[in-house]
Specification:
Elements: E1 7-11, H1 15-27, E2 31-35, H2 38-48, E3 52-56, H3 64-73, E4 82-86, H4 91-100, E5 104-107, E6 110-111, H5 112-127, E7 135-137, E8 141-146, E9 149-159, E10 162-166, E11 176-182, E12 188-199, E13 211-218, H6 221-242, E14 248-249
Parallel strand pairs: 1-2, 1-3, 3-4, 4-5, 6-14
Antiparallel strand pairs: 7-9, 8-9, 8-11, 9-10, 10-13, 11-12, 12-13
Helix pairs in contact: 2-3
Amino acid sequence: MDINLKKILIADDSKTFLMYMGILLKRMGFSIVPIESGKKVLKLIKNINPDIVMLDVNMGDMNGTSVLKYLKEDKSTSRIPIIMMSSDSDADLIEKCRKIGCSCYLPKPIKVEQLHIALEECSFSPLGPRRKHLRVSVTKKVVVKYKGKHYDLYTETLSEGGVYLRKRDSFPIWSELEIQMVIDKGHVLNIKGTVVHTKEITSDVFKVPPGMGIKFTDISEDQAQILKDYIARLIAEDIVDSQEESVIELNGTKNS
């Protein structure tokens, strides 16, 4: 689990879009800096020093492709991965952005899974270990069986590939566990896992509490899909339901 959150600068001249995307990205585990102007991006980016930039193509004062060009021509910002966003899916426009140097191009409305893939490819691949699975920060009680004993523990983050459990005295690394988790719609999942890292109490306890990272080792395709859908709903369902205009889509459609 990352202690230092990756910082995303996201620029769009729609306050509504920035609000919903900011909520979504924070739930996905990122630090967000929203900006409403292309010109402000160029003015502030060196002070902000983001790990990744997301730009709307059509901003009023200065379009995103122009901002992209400036950032890629400046040696101090040229290595920052940039994701372009637009409701315009014209192939020529997409190709133009790629030639200038964008890493990914996302069509609007933004789909949660496509966003996760773009962030994985553009941010985690060059900057460190890849976050393969979509994950969410969530506090949920689970039952853990270890050496014949049962423990009621709480999650800190959850993905289809594993879970971080809060516990002051963690089980040793490589311990094998059985985890029982009740999720929405009455599904009870019984999943085996292995402790792959632990964290003791330190000065950064308020960033990441003491506990252990568990990698699921015996999870079926059906269980993985149930978890994947559940996590996507935790991240975005209430946002999708409250939108006055379609900004974010869950599983491809607003009302899925």
